[in-house]
């Protein structure tokens, strides 16, 4: 049975201080098998590790998908395949529409985002494939954290109605199990449970996205400074979580 939308805010408040495993358990109990983890190829691998353990106890399966923009780091492709093998799971890869990519590159070249912003490219390479990935689902699980981007993610609840991708006929629930964890807590979990991780993290990459739009950060820099560094700092969302921007004046 799906969660009651009229009491979703109360549920979020009730679970706000609970562990990610409890939030994932709630998600699987109510939405398995029509629920998926969105895996970026970064430290959100902790979601797969936790969900695998919870699912084994509950007998509640879940799906995993990843967005292949065609511009990821080689290390990210290798890591995604490593995770697939390590956990013995299927990772559904969502690709952008080739016609849309071809039209963009023909009109503007391969690096237009450096001059006119990243939203057009992300819309084609990320948002449209995500829309297709979410279409058959009733809920999805993301690795968003409040400390990732104070300007756009400071108020992320652990469970919410996804106002960006819901339709009147199909409300979509979004679970953010590690929204209250810090980066240090994520890495404590990775080290404690020997979770595989993207080797780019060892080279100073904290927030990992497409190769042309991601760079290492220096000590003391916020992790989001390594993403779309040529753009205004407080609005660094690619469109996957566009509803976060609605709170920004």
Describe, in plain words, how this protein is organized in 3D.
With 249 residues, the chain is of the alpha/beta class. The protein has a single domain, classed as Rossmann fold (3-Layer(aba) Sandwich). Helices cover 36% and strands 8% of the residues. It contains 8 helices and 6 strands. Strands 3-2-1-4-6-5 form a 6-stranded mixed β-sheet. The longest helix has 16 residues, at 119-134. The termini are far apart. The model is unreliable at 244-249 (pLDDT under 50).
Q: What is the domain total for the residues?
A: 1
| Count of β-strands | 6
On the 0-100 scale, what is the average pLDDT? 90
Detail the poorly predicted runs. 244-249
For the record, give the distance between the C-alpha atoms at the N and C termini, rounded to a whole number.
37 Å
CATH H-level homologous superfamily name? HUPs
What is the helix content? 25-40%
Computed CA radius of gyration, to the nearest angstrom? 17 Å
The total of helices stands at 8
CATH topology: Rossmann fold
Largest sheet: 6 strands, mixed
CATH architecture: 3-Layer(aba) Sandwich
The arrangement of helices and strands along the chain is HHEHEHEHHHEEEH
Spatial strand sequence of the major β-sheet: 3-2-1-4-6-5
Query: Which class do the helix and strand fractions yield?
Result: alpha/beta
Strand portion: 5-15%
